Amino acid sequence: MLRQPLRILAIGAHCDDIEIGLGGTLLELARSEDVEVDWFVLTSTPERAQETLASADSFLGRHGGQYGSDRVRIHDFRDGFLPYQGIEVKEAFEALKAHVQPDVIFTHSRDDSHQDHRFVAELTWNTWRNHLIFEYEIPKYDGDLGPMSAYVEVSEEHVREKWELLRRHYPSQHSRQWFTEDTFRGLMRLRGVEANAPSGYAEAFRARKLLMDLVPRSSSSEAGIPVFAGVSEGLSR
Ligand SMILES: [Zn+2]
User: Fold this and answer.
1) Ligand 1 centre distance from Cα of residue 138 (Å)
2) CA of 47 to the centre of ligand 1 (A)
3) Share of the chain above pLDDT 90, in %
4) How many whole angstroms from 163 Cα to the centroid of ligand 1?
5) pLDDT tens digits for 100-146?
6) pLDDT (mean) for 1-25
7) How far is CA 93 from CA 61, 122, 124, 204, in A?
8) How many whole angstroms from 230 Cα to the centroid of ligand 1?
9) Which of 128, 149, 159, 233 shows the smallest number of beta carbons within 10 Å?
10) Sign of dihedral through CA atoms 8, 65, 60, 183?
């Protein structure tokens, strides 16, 4: 039982990061739960931004409706240079903070070896101090995958759909040697083994900090969010 609607903020440094890191999780949620997703991407080109707009709609099962471009915010900072545009990027985070009230935030891992990913993770933790934050993983050349602490089972159907949507919406990435079905399926299969997932597949996240509100307090408990009760209520209380 999740809060209805569950408000999710998904943050990615690059246009396809959100889909790669939590595409299966978004498919699981968007196909069965009432969710509101704010989609926030920092770097893009005009071509890649168009790819992301279409991709976000497909992953959320909506096609130009209320989850159209008004909830998908795509900046055009320079790929690979995010930490060196720090002031402007931090201002973008601050501006977003004024417009969203997420229950759950998905962002890059602070241990990610890619400088753009790591910087986005740091700014996420800087910007939202009272929120449940899960860090996702991106397979890549740097070889920085490691132990994870939270898992979401992904059905075989959604494993296939995740790749199908990535392939369909990101032709700009087709020439990359890692942009293949077996890369994404393989990682989800390994995480599925770790999670003992009945489907065999899972996406994995790092839950770096959780507040366990074991004794509900009337002043802090908000009806309808038992799964995330406490952890979404405030880490710094
Ligand atoms: Zn990336």
Assistant:
1) 7
2) 16
3) 78
4) 16
5) 999 999 999 999 999 999 999 999 999 999 899 999 999 999 999 99
6) 91
7) 26, 11, 8, 25
8) 31
9) 149
10) negative
Q: How far does residue 226's CA lie from ligand 1's centre (Å)?
A: 32
Q: What is the pTM of this model?
A: 0.89
Residue 95 φ/ψ, nearest 5 degrees: -65, -40
Q: How far is the CA of 10 from the centre of ligand 1 (A)?
A: 13
CA 12 to ligand 1 center in whole angstroms: 7
Task: Please give the structure tokens belonging to residue 135.
Answer: 């860090």
Q: How confident is the model at residue 215 (pLDDT cuts 50, 70, 90)?
A: confident
For ligand 1, the distance from its centroid to the CA atom of residue 157, given in whole angstroms, is: 25
- Cα of 198 vs centre of ligand 1, distance in Å, is 29
Distance from Cα 117 to the centre of ligand 1, integer Å: 6
Ligand 1 centroid to Cα of residue 35, in Å, is: 24
Residues with Cβ within 5 Å of ion ligand 1?
13-14, 17
Model confidence at 59: pLDDT above 60: yes
